[in-house]
Amino acid sequence: MVDMPAGSVLSGGNYRYDFARLEKPKATSLEEFETEMAAKEKTLRSTKHNVEPSLLRLLLKPYPHSWIFVYWEQSGITSVAQVDGYRWIDGTRYVFKKEAGMSKPKTGTMSRQDYTIDRMRKILSSLRKRSNHEIPTESGYCFEGGFIANPEWEMEEAGIDITIAGHPDAFVSVWFYPLARSAHSKPLLDRMGGVLQTLGQMANSVHVLRKGERQAGPYMGQEFLASAPSSRGMRGHKFIWETEGDGTLDTPALKIELTTGYRDKNGNPQQTRLTDEQAIKLWDEVLNSFRLRPVVATQRNQP
To answer: What is the dihedral sign for C-alpha 187, 188, 194, 197?
Structure first.
C-alpha cells in the first residue's frame, strides 16, 4: 500500500494470479453479460476445428453467473487449449485467462486441462467485488475492482500506474513479482552505473540527485533518483526504488517508480511542473507511506 495526493487516479494495471491473466473489470448489466456469453458460445460452437467438431472443447457453468470456456484458439491448434473464466457480480464482469497444455499426463495424474479447470473454478469461487478504496482485512489478492480471498499464496503479480493529482505529466508505478529479480538481472545501482557508462558524454546531461540503499516499509532496497532531458530538451525525472527479492511472499521483488515529464495523450513530451526539490519531496512521501496491507488472523500479509 502507498499513499498518494488526494484526487490521484489509477490509470493502468497489469495483474496475474495463479498463472491467470486478469482483464480489466467491465461495468455491464446481467442481460449484457448473458448476451456476451451466448455469443461467445455460439461462435466457438459454429467454428470448425481441423480435428475436433468445433473450437469449443468444453463449457462449464460452475456457479451462478459464472462460465468457463475451454477452446482452441485457432482451427489448426492442438497443443494448447485456452481456458477462460467469466463471472458477473453486481454489475461488473470479470475475466480470467489461462492456458492448458495437451501433453499426455503421467499415469495416475490429472490432465493439464482438468487441472487448469480446477484452478479456474477456485478463482471464480473466491472472487468478490471490491471498490478501489476498500482495503480488505482478510488474506488474499487485491486488484482493480476485485479481491480473491485465499489464505495461501499463489503465483501473484501486479503492476499499477497512478496519475498524480495536479501533475498531468507525472505518475507513480508500483510492481511486485513472484520471482527473484537476482535470477535475471543485476541490482539496481549496478545496472544504472552501467547505463551511465554506456552513455559516454551524453551522461553529462543526466543529473543524479540521489542514490543508495533505502528502506521502504519492511523491505530493504536500492534507490536511484535522476533527472534527464527528453529528445526535445524538456527535462523530466526518473526515480526508482526496488528490492532484489528471493521469490517468496515474505521477500518479493518490488519496484516503485516516479516519472515526470511524461508524454501527453498525443505523444508529445511535457515539461515537468516539479522542481528537483519538489519531485524528491513527493518521492519521499510516497516511499515513506509504503506498507503492508493489515490482515487480521491470517497466515500471510500482502503488499
So the answer is: negative
**pLDDT of 93-112, one tens digit each?**
999 999 999 998 888 889 99
Record the cell numbers describing residue 214, joined without a space: 533505502
Mean pLDDT over 121-136 rounds to: 92
Read off the C-alpha cell for 297: 488472523
pLDDT value, residue 251: 75
Residue 145 pLDDT > 50: yes
Domain count, the chain: 2
Please report whether residue 145 resides in a domain: no
Give the amino acid at 301: N
**Interior CA angle at 138 toward 132 and 141, to 5°?**
55
Report in angstroms the alpha-carbon separations of 107 from 102, 104, 110.
15, 9, 9
Final residue in a domain of this structure, among 94, 129, 164: 129
**Residue that is written with C-alpha cell 454489475 in the block:** 91
